[in-house]
Amino acid sequence: MSSLSIKRAKAALKNAFIGDALAMPVHWYYNPADIYKAFPLGIEQFEDAPSFHPSSIMSLHSTQQGGRANKASANQKEIVGDVILKGKRQYWGKDNIHYHHGMKAGENTLNAHCARIVLSCALKGYDENEFLTQYISFMRADEPKHPDTYAESYHRGFFANLEQGTPAHKCGAVTHDTASIGAFVSVTPLAVVEASKSTALEDIKRLCRSHLYLTHPDESLASVCDFYVELIYKLVHREGESPKAILEDIARKSVHMNLAAIAAKSKSDIEIVGRMYSPACY
Are 37 and 54 in contact (CB under 8 A)? Predict the structure, then answer.
């Protein structure tokens, strides 16, 4: 590996955590205009999570399993509060509570903390069992090891299955939102580290697919993952080729999108987010 490729890999990993902390205050603001109501200049620095979230639907999410809330079962264990997110159950079921209630400027979300676990495993030589052991221990800690209030559907579904006795490597839950972009938060460090080791692209794809299925068992998502891994690999290893050309190539191959033509129209973010791309996570 060239020293430049190693620098790219390190910068990508650092900026993943920086980007997470920057975005945290406005996660799941489904109307981009609401960002400017809360932050008139937009996000220009690390900010605390606002006390009011204009489009929060956390109150609709199940605290006993993945997905949306159904009628509570007296026989079913509360995953939120009893198994994970201990001490945070009281913030669920209320309108307009921020998903990252109480988080301070510069803090990382739960998913970024889980990415850190993957990163630690990848640097030592990724092992599925080691990742699952660390992930389960981290999430179930009596003294929370992260500042977050919210756990995405996949976390809740995983631990609901685990509590029912399902083997850890088969606990990935299938819900209406299993195919979620949140899956790639933990794929990123694995793909970047393996690319920096000069692991063959096809081997990285297989490894990342296997990791993905531990928490997000969905074939359509795995197909997207293959292109995402290829994008990371080519950006790390590029020599002379521009990042723009690589992005355009992956956009064309993955979803048959002419990215150059779209970029040439110089549309605003608000024209793109919500019209061309959904602001939802899946």
Answer: yes
Taking the chain (282 residues) in consecutive chunks of 10 residues, what is each chunk's mean pLDDT?
A: 90 97 94 92 96 89 76 73 94 93 98 98 98 98 95 95 97 91 95 95 98 97 97 96 96 94 88 78 68
Query: What does the domain layout of the chain look like in residue ranges?
Result: 3-272
Q: Which fold is adopted by the domain 3-272?
A: ADP-ribosylglycohydrolase fold (1.10.4080)
pLDDT at 67: 66
pLDDT for position 62 = 85
Please choose, from the candidates 64, 93, 68, the residue with its C-alpha nearest in 3D space to the C-alpha of residue 80.
Answer: 64
Q: Exposed e or buried b for every residue in 198-220, given b needs 16+ CB within 10 A?
A: eeebeebbebbbebbbbbbbbee
